[in-house]
Amino acid sequence: MRHKTLWAMTGLVLGGVAWGLWYARQPAAAGYVAAPVKVAVAPVSQQPFTRYLQAIGELEAVEEVSVPAEVGGRIVELPIESGQRVERGQVLVRLNDAPQRGQKVRLQGQVDNALVRLDRLKKLIHSNAVSREALDDAQAQYTTARGALQELMAQIEQRTIRAPFAGTLGIRKVHVGQYVNPGDTLINLIGNQGLYVNFSVPEQAMLHFKTGSPLLIELDALPGQPLTAVVSSVDPFLDRSRTLSLQARLQDPPAAALPRMFARVRLPQTLPENTLSLPETAVTYSAYGEDVYLVQPALDAQSAPTVRRVSVKTGERRDGWVVINQGVAPGDQVVTSGQIKLSDGASIEPMTSTALAADGGTNP
Fold first, then answer.
1. What class has domain 52-63+191-268?
2. Residues 42 and 278: beta-carbon distance below 8 Å
3. I need a labelling partner for 93 at 20 to 30 A (CA). Which of 1, 139, 235, 257 fits?
4. Origin, by domain of life (predicted)?
């Protein structure tokens, strides 16, 4: 019984304390006003905007080849270095041709003997000292010997690998003394004649691309260095996925642009036109669509500006900006950073993006 009474008294005391605390806080809560939220704002601006058809492509050298060995053999000379510039016809690799050169001496002797015999018989034929059959046989022997020599000379020439065009060598893949098989790659060679960009577009866009169409090219590896190109070739066939392959020639590509680089291709569709634009960070997304927080001026000197959430319809996005087709007007101020702390009607303290970042409020 005593314990029950003790527990009852304890409960009453705790309840009274809790009620007193709640009651004491009521006046303060009733008079509380939330501090304005620090946000970055920017005006809705009109900017010239060109609409583009876009595609993804890859760079390819106008001249490029993996130089192969035509025949098997041991490398005896390698007068090149990785990355070296070479001229057309310059020797890149020599394979061992000593056995073939020995055969050349023997075959050259056979050719010389056959020619001497043929010349002698030609002089004798006029005096009927030899038969026409003997002369024909001598002619055949000479022709056969000369053909064998020419075949051997071609085999010797195959053992001297030369640059098929002027350009820059890649990294050497072989060494002196190494044995190579027919078809083995010895070194890569990139020509000096420029670069293509290969890309494809869906059939719905094919009518916009013609030979001579100007293009804008952006390389992910070289940001901030826009390039230009001209469509040089259009494939006359669509592939099984109904896409059209095209090739364009880059105009004055920089030395840093290399084959196989990823390229973004853009074809201007319209002349530049003024459109309403905002930084992409100004647009928030929800289940109901896209919105921005529109800044409402303060009602008086004692109050802070507020925000109103409005729905917008966006268009193309480019370089951190988004086209606004509906929902705002030129000159409207919108929140570009700090939206996560906002709700419709919230008071704000407008700041520049730089000032907000310095204040530590960089979250959208």
1. mainly beta
2. yes
3. 257
4. Bacteria
Contact 201, 176 (CB under 8 A): no
Helical segments of the chain, H only: 2-30, 98-125, 132-158, 353-359
CA 114 and chain centroid, separation: 63
pLDDT 10s digits, 202-251: 988 888 888 999 999 999 999 989 999 999 999 998 888 899 999 999 99
Distance CA(292)–CA(198), nearest Å, equals: 40
pTM: 0.61
C-beta of residue 52 within 8 angstroms of C-beta of residue 216: yes
**Cα gap 201→231, rounded to integer Å:** 13
Q: How is the chain split into domains, by residue range?
A: 37-49+273-359, 52-63+191-268, 97-158
**Tokens 């018989």 sit on residue:** 121
**Amino acid letter at 66?**
S
Both tokens of 203, joined, read 């059939």
Q: For the domain covering 37-49+273-359, report its CATH number.
A: 2.40.420.20
How far apart are the C-alpha atoms of 175 and 177, rounded to whole Å? 6
Burial 302-341 (b: 16+ CB within 10 A, else e): eeebbbebeebebeeeeeebbbbeebbeeebbbbbbbbee
Per-residue pLDDT tens digits for 249-304: 999 999 899 999 999 999 887 666 788 889 999 999 888 889 999 999 888 877 88
What length does the chain have?
A: 364
**Are 250 and 199 in contact, with CB atoms under 8 Å apart?**
no
Cβ–Cβ under 8 Å, residues 356 and 39: yes
Rounded-to-integer distance, Cα 223 and Cα 225, Å: 6
Q: How far apart are CA 22 and CA 16, in angstroms?
A: 10
The owner of tokens 């966006």 is 314
CATH number for domain 97-158, candidates 3.40.50.2300, 3.40.710.10, 3.30.1330.10, 1.10.287.470: 1.10.287.470
**CA 263, CA 197: separation in Å to the nearest integer?**
7
CA 306 to CA 132: how far, in whole Å? 116
